Amino acid sequence: MKIQDEINDQSAMPAGNETLSRRGLLRNAGLLAGGVLAGGSMLRATTARAEGAGVDTTVGDGTAATMSTASGGPVPGLAKAGQRKASPQRVVNDLAILNSALLLEYLEAEFYTRVVQADMQRAYLSEPVRQAALTLQRDEITHVQAISAMIQQLGGTPIAKPGFQFPGAIFISPLAFLSLSASLEETGVSTYLGAAPKVQLKDVLKFAASIYGIETRHAGLIHYLQGELLAPHDMEMPITIEEALARANPYIVKDQVTPNGMVGGAGF
Fold first, then answer.
1. Which residues touch 21 (CB under 8 Å, ≥6 apart)?
2. What is the model's pLDDT at position 12?
3. Which of 38-42, 131-135, 232-236, 261-265 has the lowest mean pLDDT?
4. 161 - beta bridge partners?
5. Can you give the residue range of the structural domain that contains 86?
6. Structurally, how many domains does the chain consist of?
């Protein structure tokens, strides 16, 4: 099926939190990222639809500009993103990247939230690992909120949060938790690095770099807790958005969507 046909199919989908298949989510996210980053027809079609519908593609001010990080400081790049004008193509390009990043941040935030919930019931984590899980949960929820705010600042709509599933072992075994945590954090680091050359708006790049830096610290912390070197490699290796989505695929539940603003679900 051609990308243009996929666009038509996607535009016909109902809005809101209706059922969304895992295959459809990953396919649309992959096509969105791949089509936009390759300068393909999806970028032109999306821009044309926005202009034809009379959508103002100029970045506007909003309440997200006042958002602060958990530490109390401003989110780098977020406030200024609402004060600059940008071409429609550049905005659509960066919205595709941000929404792909949001999917991965949803995954990480949900992962740590469920681990924290499990530890509250079973107390299976040591104190250092428990504190790490709490810190990572806080940071990833902040990333979800910040990316959603940036997308809205650019005039876009954050993707719906899908349902997630995780191996049962991570809720009873500290080693299983740390192993999957290391994998997710390394994926985040590599994805942000791989996407950086594709970002076209300066404020979005600054914003993404601020998250990338925290993800590298997360990865180092997990490696430390595993008794490994903080930086097991002498250079970070980038991956494509498509590769990142493929890594996320096993943890996405088919035919389940949860509200955008919620992190953490019933049970584990």
1. 254, 255
2. 36
3. 38-42
4. 258
5. 82-252
6. 1
